[in-house]
Amino acid sequence: MRTYRGLRRSGGGVRELLWEMGKRIDDDYSILRAASKARVPIYVPGFVDGAFGTAILTYNEMQRTRTGGRQVRVDVLKDEHELMDIVYSSKSLGALIIGGGISKHHVIWWSQFAGGLDYVVYITMAVEWDGSLSGARPKEAITWGGKVKPTARQAFILEDATVVLPILIPYVVGKLGFRKGVRVIT
């Protein structure tokens, strides 16, 4: 794994690490690369609960045993502060939630502190009847203490995101337009 000066010294957040990794990807179809180029933040609340976080931990342990070893420092709470600032400074909140689990929970958790989401689209293959958070519909989040506003514009798509997103994203970009200077691959 490559190290880079910015996070090693300053203890940047996961978002910054992902941007740095995106710069190193040579694939025009990479979401991480596109987000890095356009400076679109990607927040991963469960960063340490996966292969990427484990790889950094393993790398750091190897560096710790070496004389002069240089570790990668990631401030996992830095992104939380950014999310808090986004929520509290926004006039309205919207989310495109792909899948479920911790990422879905994190979005709706933070939204409750600003009265709930005003706009939400869920895309998941999870079923509702098993009682999981992943399969819960927007109407259920309304009853969970204001995570989605009762007046929210909402949609639920029970489908595989790898099928839906290649259809949905070009449609939305074509309908709403996109920021100048950012190339959209269709």
Question: Can you tell me about this structure?
Answer:
The structure is a single chain. The chain has 186 residues and is an alpha/beta fold. The protein has two domains: 1-89, no CATH class; 92-159. It is 44% helix and 13% strand. The chain is built from eight helices and three strands, in the order H-H-H-H-H-E-H-E-H-E-H. The protein has helices at 5-10, 14-23, 31-38, 51-64, 78-89, 101-111, 138-142, 161-176; strands spanning 94-98, 117-124, 148-158. It has a three-stranded parallel sheet. The protein is globular, with a radius of gyration of 18 Å.
Q: Which residues form runs of ≥5 with pLDDT under 50?
A: none
The biggest sheet amounts to: 3 strands, parallel
Number of domains: 2
What is the typical, i.e. mean, pLDDT? 84
Count, helices: 8
Gap between N and C termini: 31 Å
Strand order of the largest sheet: 1-2-3
Q: How would you summarize this macromolecular structure in one to three sentences?
A:
With 186 residues, the chain is of the alpha/beta class.
